């Protein structure tokens, strides 16, 4: 078989995966949305993970279970890295096999408070490269999708990053994250004190995957965070890249989805200028 035949075959398989998983993500979003509209904060079934601001709800667990069960039914050989499975003691291993990296609700704190900025984040990696991405905010009806080589979309309209190259004009997103480790918080605040006078503005909305989507659609110019996990950024990586932007390590080196560090931006010039202004924090890898 020629290389072109191989590429056509892979593209057809990826289209099939995309269509199948798109409808599962949509269904999970509908369930999630009904629950969040009909549930009071005090009735919400919330548990704590690494600390008392690292939350998980029964909805996170249900959405992750549904995605894994439904994908396994059709593709039993596929692997998974899911936030709640890993938090429950499961493995976080990325091989060359087709692997779905899942955050059932990215922005669980927002979900629990009814702040309508959270989403289901799902990415397919093959040979350790992202091929398909979905980030779905069911409360606001925003479905972000991307396929390798085929662009990034919001509700089927193609999206592009801004062309911003200058830090002084950049709208920057970042998060303190869910860890309360004083060493990490020191770096978070150092960076804010250093950056805020040099940038156009700062936004911190509590959902890493949607922050990356804001860069992909050109609303924000930069997003960086230390301490996030693969499931928070896997789909965002492809969305930003397919929208014409860049994902790098916050030190300026290459991006590594398991490093728990991300810096994405509209342009490489801007990404490197931000990187050169950041104090660094290196959490243990995923
Ligand atoms: C959270 C993010 C939040 C980020 C945290 C954490 P969770 O994900 O969305 O914006 O700052 O590092 O990863 O726990 O809600 O899925």
Describe the structure.
The structure is a single chain. With 286 residues, the chain is of the alpha+beta class. It folds into 2 domains: 3-159, 2-Layer Sandwich (Fructose-1,6-Bisphosphatase, Chain A, domain 1); 167-276, D-Maltodextrin-Binding Protein, domain 2, CATH 3.40.190.80. It is 38% helix and 23% strand. The chain has 8 helices and 14 strands. It has helices at residues 3-38, 58-74, 83-87, 108-113, 182-195, 208-216, 230-242, 268-275, and strands at residues 46-48, 55-57, 79-82, 99-106, 119-126, 129-137, 142-147, 152-154, 157-159, 171-174, 201-203, 222-226, 246-248, 261-265. The strands form 3 sheets. The protein has a 7-stranded mixed beta sheet, with helices on both faces. A 5-stranded mixed beta sheet has the order 11-10-12-14-13, with helices on both faces. α1 (3-38) packs antiparallel against α2. The longest helix is centred in the N-terminal third of the chain and has 36 residues, at 3-38. The model has no long low-confidence stretch (mean pLDDT 93). Bound molecules: L-MYO-inositol-1-phosphate. L-MYO-inositol-1-phosphate is lined by residues 83, 103, 106-109, 175, 177-178, 206-208, 225, 227-229, 232.
Topology, please?
Layout: H1 3-38, E1 46-48, E2 55-57, H2 58-74, E3 79-82, H3 83-87, E4 99-106, H4 108-113, E5 119-126, E6 129-137, E7 142-147, E8 152-154, E9 157-159, E10 171-174, H5 182-195, E11 201-203, H6 208-216, E12 222-226, H7 230-242, E13 246-248, E14 261-265, H8 268-275
Parallel strand pairs: 3-4, 10-11, 10-12
Antiparallel strand pairs: 1-2, 4-5, 5-6, 6-7, 7-8, 8-9, 12-14, 13-14
Helix pairs in contact: 1-2, 6-7
